[in-house]
Amino acid sequence: MDISKFSLTVSDFIDFKVFLKKLLKNLENFIKIAETLTLNLY
């Protein structure tokens, strides 16, 4: 197995982790907004 064929480097992995963290933050914010809207409806 040739490791040099992998295009996924350490920096790519770190970028991916940062991307995931941002995605989670956005999801949390979206859920908070959804809950607020739901509470306002009832």
UniProtKB/TrEMBL annotation:
This is Uncharacterized protein. It comes from marine sediment metagenome. The lineage of its organism: unclassified sequences, metagenomes, ecological metagenomes.
